[in-house]
Write a structure and sequence with these properties.
This protein is mostly helical. The chain folds into three domains: 80 residues, no CATH class; 104 residues, no CATH class; 98 residues, no CATH class. Helix content is 48%, strand content 9%. The chain has 14 helices and eight strands. The strands form four sheets. Strands 1-4 form a two-stranded antiparallel sheet. Strands 2-3 form a two-stranded antiparallel sheet. Strand 2 and strand 3 form a beta hairpin. Helix 2 packs parallel to helix 5, helix 3 packs across helix 5 and helix 11 runs antiparallel to helix 12. The model has no long low-confidence stretch (mean pLDDT 90). The structure holds iron/sulfur cluster (2 copies). The site of one iron/sulfur cluster (SF4) has 12 residues, from loops.
Length: 307
C-alpha cells in the first residue's frame, strides 16, 4: 500500500510516467483512475471499501513495493492486473450497496409504509423507533433545518450522534441488514440522490395504532392539547404580549409530562416507547424554540430562556 503520496504534477504521457516514473507516480495515477472508474468521491467510504478490495485482489501492495525493480513490460502487466481487478469488481457491484456504513453514520432512516412488516416480523420493537410530530424542527443530512409538515417515524440514533441505532461502528455492519428499512434500500450513493418519499409513503402512528382504540384515543387526546402547532402559536401569542397564552402553554406542558408518567407507571412502557406513542417530550420541542422548561420540586414547570 502506498504510504507516500505523490504530490507533484504528472506532465508527461501517463504511459511514459508508468514506464519510467517512481512508484508514487503510479500510485497517484492509480488513485485517479479508480476514482474516475468507480464514479464516486475519493473521500467517500464507498471508494475506500472498493479500493481496499480491488487492491487486495490485484496484489497492489506487492506491485507498489517492487515497482522500482520492474521492467517496463512487467510494469505494463502489473498495471493491467490492477485495471482488470477494478473492472471485475465494478461489474459485480456497479449499482449496489457495498455496506461501507457511511450513510448509516450520517443518520437513521425514516420509516415508510412497507416497513410496517418489520414490526410484524419483530425486527423492530417500539423501543427502537420514535415519532417526529408535525411542526417539529429537524436537521437533514446536509445540515438544513426544516419544520415538518407531517409526522414521520424514525429509527433511533445512538445517543449524542446521528448514527443509526442498528449500525455497529466497530465492524461497520448493520444488525438488521437483510431486513433493513425501505429507505436504506433506496440509498444509492453511486448515483443521483433518491427523490424524497411521497407523503402517502410515510409510515405514521395511525398505521401502527389506528386499530388499537385505547392507544389511538390516547394519542389523539395528546395531540388535541399538545400539538406542536398549538404550542408554537402559544409562544407567538406570548411574544406578542398576550399573557393568557401562557395558560395554554403550561397546560400542554403539564399534560405532556403527566401523561408520559402515566404510561411509565401504569402501562409499564419504557421512556423510549413513550416517544413512539407521543413523540418527543414538549420540553425538547421548547428547546428548539430557545426555551428551557424545568420541573420544580412542587411539580410545576418553570420556563426560562436558554443561554
Ligand atoms: S448505500 Fe450507504 S452503506 Fe451502501 S455503499 Fe452507499 S454509503 Fe455505503
Ligand atoms: S438500518 Fe442498517 S442499513 Fe439502515 S441506516 Fe441503520 S444500520 Fe444502516
Amino acid at each position: 500500500m502506498a504510504n507516500k503520496r505523490f504530490m507533484g504534477k504528472i506532465h508527461t504521457d501517463p504511459w511514459e510516467s508508468l514506464a519510467k516514473g517512481p512508484r508514487e507516480v503510479m500510485a497517484s495515477l492509480w488513485e485517479g483512475y479508480l476514482a474516475e472508474t468507480l464514479g464516486v468521491s475519493k473521500k467517500s467510504r464507498r471508494f475506500k471499501v472498493l479500493r481496499q478490495e480491488i487492491e487486495k485482489a490485484a496484489g497492489f501492495g506487492k506491485i507498489f513495493q517492487d515497482w522500482h525493480t520492474l521492467s517496463p513490460e512487467a510494469r505494463a502487466a502489473a498495471w493491467r492486473r490492477l485495471i482488470s481487478a477494478a473492472r471485475e469488481r465494478l461489474q459485480a457491484t456497479q449499482e449496489s450497496c457495498v455496506r461501507c456504513g457511511e450513510c448509516c453514520e450520517l443518520g437513521s432512516p425514516t420509516l415508510l409504509t412497507p416497513d410496517l412488516a418489520l414490526f410484524q416480523k419483530e425486527v423492530l420493537s417500539f423501543d427502537e423507533v420514535y415519532t417526529l410530530r408535525a411542526g417539529e424542527q429537524v436537521t437533514d443530512r446536509e445540515g438544513k433545518v426544516t419544520t415538518l409538515k407531517e409526522e414521520r417515524l424514525k429509527m433511533r440514533e445512538v445517543l449524542g450522534s446521528r448514527q443509526c441505532w442498528f449500525y455497529l461502528a466497530a465492524g461497520q455492519t448493520c444488525r438488521i441488514y437483510d431486513d433493513r428499512p425501505e429507505q436504506c434500500r433506496r440509498q444509492n450513493c453511486w448515483g443521483l440522490p433518491a427523490p424524497p418519499p411521497a407523503v402517502a409513503q410515510l409510515l405514521n402512528r395511525r398505521d401502527l395504532f389506528g386499530d388499537v382504540p385505547e392507544v389511538w384515543e390516547l394519542i389523539n387526546a395528546h395531540e388535541e392539547r399538545c400539538a406542536c402547532a398549538l404550542v408554537a402559536q402559544a409562544l407567538t401569542d406570548l411574544g406578542a404580549g398576550q399573557e393568557e397564552a401562557g395558560d395554554a402553554l403550561f397546560e400542554a406542558l403539564h399534560f405532556d409530562h403527566y401523561l408520559r408518567q402515566l404510561l411509565l407507571d401504569d402501562w409499564s412502557l419504557t421512556p423510549a416507547a413513550t416517544e413512539l406513542l407521543l413523540g418527543r417530550p414538549l420540553t425538547e420541542f421548547l428547546k428548539t424554540h430557545g426555551l428551557a422548561a424545568t420541573l420544580t420540586p412542587e411539580g410545576v414547570f418553570r420556563l426560562e430562556r436558554r443561554e
